[in-house]
Design brief:
The protein is α+β, with helices and mostly antiparallel strands. It folds into three domains: 121 residues, no CATH class; 100 residues, no CATH class; 104 residues, no CATH class. It is built from 15 helices and nine strands. The strands form four sheets. It has a three-stranded antiparallel β-sheet. Strands 2-3 form a two-stranded antiparallel ribbon. A two-stranded antiparallel ribbon has the order 6-7. Strand 4 and strand 5 form a beta hairpin.
């Protein structure tokens, strides 16, 4: 899974704990019996505090910061140079496929640029996104090519790929040495003692034990249900991971590097906005650290450009339709049938419209 904690599972766990806090069995929907330990004040406080903890994690998009990039020798051995020249982003993607991105940060462009610069293979220019390959870099198999915008891109010939793959342990140590040592205090985990108590309580409940007395829960106590014990175990895992790292991190806003714009796939066949967004977000350097481009964000931008209109239908739901300018670009309405057999209208984007969308992406 691309991120350490899935938002839908976090929300489900929070929903279960809220119901237990309010005296309801989240599985059956029935009022909890008087003999259930969940009716005790100590457990009411535990559930209340854990709901607050999960709310905080969810507010940071389910992410806590992970350790810096590193790779094992076994993972390194699986990486083989491809035939022909590859772009830097393709090289990074191949490396990151070998590691568990749910447990640690992937390699990114900034780190690879920095390491190669320290080795003397690259030289920065006035543009933070542009580097010149030095004589040493060319010797080991790294080169520059120009994009359609006249910007230099860094590429790797087979020997350049091998040069990087063989030195990934050295790159790992470089990343660890250049990892930020401090985070803003507003993101720091506060009240570690309380989190540790909540963690212990959830671990005990997951084992069928009373979180305070450590005695086995009564046989008929709804808290012993398997689904609830899985919920307690997942909550404990979430709290433990948060404590290990010590701070939260929110994803950075969407920004597609200009050199990746030309890689956005456009087709003769009209597509929906959802399909176009999937193609764009597949190009993100590190989807675990950056927000994807959303339909709402792109539609609002297109509305400001005068090619989409925001309307309200008879059910008071927001709908989007092409304006006259949008139709000239190839944004059209199409008819479909829902799973329930109901007709509906949706918006499609022709080849010309997709090319226009691609030109808009780097402005967001």
């Amino acid at each position: 899974m691309p991120r350490y904690m899935q938002i839908d599972v976090l929300n489900r766990a929070k929903d279960y704990l809220e119901k237990l806090r309010d005296g309801t069995d989240p599985i059956s929907g029935q009022v909890l019996p008087d003999f259930s330990a969940a009716q005790e004040r100590d457990l009411w406080e535990l559930f209340s505090h854990c709901v607050q903890n999960l709310n905080t994690i969810i507010s940071y998009d389910g992410l806590v910061e992970r350790p810096p990039f590193s790779i094992t020798a076994q993972q390194q051995e699986r990486l083989k140079a491809a035939n022909g020249t590859v772009e830097m982003q393709d090289l990074i993607k191949r490396i990151n496929r070998e590691i568990d991105l749910s447990q640690r940060r992937g390699l990114n462009r900034v780190s690879l640029f920095g390491w190669l610069t320290d080795l003397g293979c690259l030289q920065p220019t006035g543009n933070a996104q542009e580097y010149v390959v030095t004589g040493m870099g060319q010797t080991v198999g790294i080169g520059n090519v120009e994009s359609f915008e006249g910007k230099r891109r860094v590429v790797f010939r087979p020997e350049g790929q091998k040069f990087v793959f063989e030195r990934l342990q050295e790159l790992s140590r470089w990343c660890q040495g250049h990892s930020p040592k401090e985070k803003k205090s507003k993101n720091a985990v506060k009240n570690r003692g309380g989190l540790e108590r909540n963690l212990r309580g959830m671990e005990r409940l997951a084992q069928g034990l009373h979180p305070v007395t450590c005695q086995p829960l009564a046989g008929g106590d709804p808290l012993r249900q398997e689904r609830l014990q899985k919920c307690f175990a997942f909550t404990a895992k979430s709290l433990r991971r948060t404590l290990e790292v010590g701070y939260f991190t929110a994803k950075t806003p969407f920004r597609l590097p200009p050199e990746l714009r030309e890689k956005i796939v456009v087709t003769q066949e009209p597509v929906t906005l959802g399909v176009f967004l999937q193609r764009v977000n597949a190009l993100l350097p590190d989807p675990t650290a950056m927000q994807g481009l959303s339909a709402t964000e792109l539609r609002e931008y297109l509305s400001r450009q005068g090619v989409l209109q925001k309307l309200t239908n008879e059910r008071n739901h927001t709908i989007w339709r092409p304006s006259a300018n949008g139709r000239e670009l190839g944004i059209e309405e199409a008819e479909g049938i829902s799973k329930e057999g109901e007709p509906f209208t949706y918006v499609t984007y022709s080849l010309t419209a997709q090319q226009y969308l691609a030109s808009c992406v780097t402005s967001l």
